[in-house]
Design goal:
The structure holds two protein chains of two kinds. In chain A, 42% of the residues lie in helices and 16% in strands. By secondary structure, chain A is of the alpha/beta class. In chain A, strands 3, 4, 6, 7, 8, 9, 10, 11 and 12 form a nine-stranded mixed β-sheet that branches. A two-stranded parallel ribbon of chain A has the order 2-5. The radius of gyration of chain A is 25 Å and the shape is globular. Chain B is of the alpha/beta class. Chain B has helices at 35-47, 68-74, 88-110, 113-128, 135-152, 162-175, 177-193, 213-221, 245-259, 279-282, 305-317, 337-356, 363-378, 387-396, 406-417; strands at 199-204, 229-236, 264-270, 289-295, 322-328, 399-402, 425-430, 433-438, 441-451. Chain B contains 15 helices and nine strands. The chains are: A alpha/beta, B alpha/beta. Strand 1 of chain A pairs antiparallel with strand 3 of chain B, so a sheet runs across the interface.
Chain lengths: 446, 455
């Protein structure tokens, strides 16, 4: 009978242990897996936990990429226990990533996700009615920030024009427009003719709407009429996956954008939509046999060629374009904690709306982590990159006036204290607890 | 795999009749027969020992015979399809292989070792006619080897060195989900049982490189209210070659526990038989909450049920919060050898089927692990019992079931989802126990227990 006992050895005695027990059997070496431990400080409240979760998620992603099935499975086992779908905001965030990693790893084995493996095998995102979506969008500055800043600066830019043509590339299905129409209606001069053209992009990205763009357009036209504005609404079906090429084509063919003549203002409003256009990390498409140029670049050149009066570009300030899964995971984890953190301030725990909100978030996470190639559509780029692109395409930054800033500040006052506003050179940035969330930039042709 | 034993009852019926040759009693010289002669020869051979039957094997009335209906039951419509491309003659030979193997088992049971030996020679010939690289041919090869051993070298035990066994075990662990399922499910039960306890002690009846424990240590580290103080006692065979694998594993786990801030202490107990372990060796502190982890160990004591009672009595005396038990779910313990053999043939065919579907560069080592087990079962030095019987034993020894919850089920499903093979594996819950199987044939069962308050 033998006993071996290990009292915890003093730290200076720790060395790494050989991974093969018998060096003679080289062909049959035991690969004793080193658990990818990490330096954890003692739990520092929520930040400590979030760090641990991130590190575990990173280790898991590495294991999956290296086809280390056993390690991936073990880490997923741990994560399943520490990231319940109904826990605190860090846990729910981690749970979203956990689901996404399971989805990704499931593809490695050609196995469908077994029922029971995750809650809700397919993320069912809610289809919003207009009322629901309006209410939803109003709950938080996430979109309101961009709307407010954009509308204020658009109003300035279109002063004096009798026709205002707005091309709206927006994720939120024209939610910005009613407020803009209202503001236009309140101008001192006579009401202009307003044309609204939307891409009516058909990809299914959340938030999803339960009515068609035609129906939506009719509602907008009626609303405008109630404000004494004549609104012409037009949908040109198009898709971001080819850089809205057919949209731009149609604009030109139908002669919808006459030359800049002092009568018609052309406003191009981009609200969190442009990041769906493929950029350079996705096999670059060569258009018209030109040098390798991404669809994103092509698109910006195309709208420059329309000679717009003003372009507003609002998007989320993060970088999801890395081809390296771990980099992407880190970037996504260190950005998407924000919506999970903010949701506590505006949606009660267990409410249906919170479920919808987080389902949309989970959709995004799964897209970034589990998808590749053209299916991976969430291709956020940070503000600095977009600024570069716009300059390269022939635009220069416009200033947001004091009025715009004032309006944004007033809007933020209606929301939780953690939200803030930052000016970065010519641009405005929405912050949460000091972290950049959404940027708003305004451009005129240079 | 099992589908290759299809219901071609007419396949051997078409053979023309040959005059039966007198059977050689000592068939040490390998004589090559063509297949039709062989089957007739075998059948006629067997009719000597059985009631008179017609020449056609499909109607042979032999006590052991696999009747077409039971063969039917083996056919799985969804099994991998490459068997469908085998030629008729190969399927033909597979069926004959089964018939002859069963004949051989029957001979062994009756004590007629010379006949058994002759049949083994024939089996080798039959085997050469099938593809023994994969599919049923491979399993048949292992069973024939095992039968060979049983008949010719019954006293020789198929044991590798402890080191070899560790390597095979490790590869079996990596290649397919069975052991991972055992670990994940047990860990889930242990983690949940330890909820709210700050001083915990895990007793592992087969430490074996401690593959089970890193994940549990990590999960304990990240408990919402902080990790408990963790003790791990690992039991394993004594080391004979100067290494101390228990200690090495313990040190490795201690290192890991430190890196995740879990206060940890390890103790190794070397015992060649688990019923040699006594409670004073485990040094259980009354203040700590104990979990006993018993994975694929109790079946080693099936040669003498009182040994099992002794171990369970010991475990009971430790007053554990939870006892996790995982065993093969099959009866390889029947008194009649041919029954045991048939059951094993079915069980390991299913298991090999599932292994075929797994990926992995060193899968062949996992297969050797299973091969050794086949040998041990056929040579009657290893027995297995069904979950139902284990439950009876636990109940008899004063244990109540602890139902494995939805979390355990979810974890098992997740395990089968990621990196998994074409959806052939299935996990089923039955009366609080979880079973992992291939194409709905359960192969391994996990359950959890706690001692009754009164024994």
């Amino acid at each position: 009978m033998q006993f071996t006992q290990t009292p915890p050895p003093p730290l200076h005695e720790l060395t790494s242990f050989p991974s093969n027990i018998n060096p003679m059997n080289k062909n049959q070496m035991l690969r004793t897996r080193q658990w990818p431990g990490f330096q954890t400080s003692k739990s520092l409240g929520s930040f400590g936990d979030a760090n641990c979760m991130e590190q575990l998620l990173v280790h898991c992603a590495n294991a999956i990429e290296n086809n280390d099935a056993t390690l991936a499975q073990q880490i997923l086992w741990v994560l399943n226990n520490i990231a319940p779908s109904d826990g605190d905001s860090n846990q729910r965030l981690a749970c979203g990533f956990l689901r996404a990693l399971i989805a990704r790893a499931a593809r490695k084995g050609t196995c469908k996700i077994l029922t029971g493996a995750v809650d809700n095998v397919h993320i069912t995102t809610h289809k919003f009615s207009i009322i629901e979506l309006t209410g939803f969008v109003d709950l938080t500055p996430w979109h309101r920030f961009g709307f407010t800043a954009a509308n204020a600066t658009i109003l300035d830019a279109v002063e004096g024009y009798s026709i205002i043509h707005i091309i709206d590339f927006s994720l939120t299905h024209c939610m910005q427009i009613p407020t803009l129409i209202d503001a236009i209606a309140n101008r001192l001069e006579g009401p202009p003719l307003v044309k609204l053209t939307v891409a009516g992009a058909t990809e299914d990205v959340p938030p999803m709407l339960d009515l068609s763009y035609e129906e939506l357009g009719m509602k907008l036209v009626n609303f405008a009429r109630s404000r004494n504005i004549i609104l012409e609404f037009r949908v040109i079906p198009s898709t971001s996956s080819n850089g809205f090429a057919s949209f731009i084509e149609q604009l030109k063919v139908q002669n919808l954008v006459p030359a800049n003549n002092g009568i018609e203002a052309l406003v191009i409003n981009c609200h969190m939509m442009l990041h769906y256009i493929p950029e350079e990390t996705l096999n670059p498409f060569s258009f018209n046999n030109t040098s390798v140029s991404s669809l994103r670049t092509m698109f910006l050149k195309a709208i420059r060629s329309l000679d717009p009066t003003i372009v507003v570009l609002v998007d989320e300030d993060a970088d999801f374009t890395s081809n390296n899964l771990v980099c992407r995971l880190r970037a996504a984890f260190n950005y998407l904690w924000i919506p999970y953190d903010t949701v506590d301030t505006f949606l009660p725990h267990g409410s249906k709306q919170r479920q919808w909100y987080e389902a949309d978030m989970n959709w995004k996470i799964e897209n970034v982590i589990a998808e590749e190639g053209v299916e991976r559509v969430e291709r956020l780029e940070p503000k600095s990159r977009w600024v570069q692109r716009m300059r390269h395409a022939g635009f220069r930054g416009g200033l947001f006036g004091e009025e715009a800033v004032m309006e944004v500040k007033n809007m933020l006052d209606e929301h939780a204290a953690g939200w803030g506003l930052k000016r970065e050179e010519e641009d405005l940035v929405l912050t949460w607890k000091g972290h950049n969330v959404v940027f708003a930039t305004a451009w005129i042709p240079s | 795999m099992a589908s290759s034993i299809s219901t071609k009852t007419s396949s051997t019926g078409g053979s023309s009749m040959h005059t039966a040759k007198p059977p050689p009693h000592h068939s040490n010289d390998a004589v090559l027969y063509n297949t039709t002669e062989l089957s007739t020869w075998v059948d006629s051979l067997l009719t000597e020992f059985n009631q008179p039957a017609s020449h056609f094997p499909s109607t042979l009335n032999l006590p052991y015979s696999i009747n077409p209906d039971s063969v039917n039951a083996w056919t799985e419509p969804n099994t991998t399809s490459f068997y469908e491309t085998q030629q008729i003659i190969e399927e033909d030979s597979s069926i004959r292989l089964v018939h002859v193997m069963m004949s051989c088992a029957d001979s062994v049971q009756r004590g007629n070792l010379s006949l058994a030996g002759a049949l083994i020679e024939e089996l080798h010939i039959l085997l050469s006619r099938v593809n023994s690289e994969f599919g049923f041919g491979k399993v048949a090869g292992y069973f024939i080897d095992a039968l060979s051993r049983r008949v010719f070298k019954p006293l020789e035990r198929s044991h590798g060195s402890a080191h070899e066994n560790e390597i095979l075990y490790h590869h079996f662990y990596e290649a397919c989900p069975y052991l991972k399922f055992a670990h994940f499910t047990s860990n889930q039960a242990i983690l949940e049982a330890f909820d709210g306890h700050d001083c915990v002690h895990v007793i592992d009846f087969n430490l074996m490189q401690g593959l089970q424990w890193p994940a549990l240590i990590q999960a304990l580290a990240l408990r919402p209210n902080g990790p408990p103080i963790l003790r791990l006692t690992g039991i394993g065979p004594p080391s004979l070659d100067g290494h101390d694998p228990l200690r090495e594993t313990g040190l490795r786990l201690a290192h890991l526990a430190r890196s995740v801030n879990v206060r940890f202490a390890f103790r190794g107990v070397a015992a060649s038989r688990i019923d040699d372990v006594k409670s004073w060796m485990l040094q259980v502190d009354p203040k700590e909450s104990v979990a006993v982890n018993c994975i694929m160990q109790l079946h080693k004591l099936l040669d003498d049920p009182s040994r099992i009672d002794n171990v369970l009595k010991l475990i009971h005396s430790l007053e554990p919060k939870i006892v996790t038990l995982v065993e093969q779910d099959t009866n390889h313990n029947q008194p009649e050898f041919s029954d045991r053999f048939r059951e094993a043939l079915y069980y390991y065919s299913t298991m090999f089927d599932s292994l075929e579907a797994c990926k992995g560069p060193q899968k062949w080592l996992a297969e050797i692990h299973v091969q050794r087990e086949i040998c041990n079962v056929v040579c009657c030095i290893e027995m297995h019992e069904t979950l139902a019987n284990w439950k009876e034993m636990m109940d008899k020894n004063g244990f109540t079931p602890v139902y494995l919850g939805t979390n355990a089920y979810k974890q098992a499903s997740m395990l089968l989802t990621v990196f998994s093979a074409q959806g052939g594996y299935s996990v089923d819950e039955s009366e609080g126990c979880l079973k992992l199987g291939w194409h709905n044939r359960p192969l391994i069962a996990a359950s959890a227990w706690r001692p009754n308050s009164k024994m």
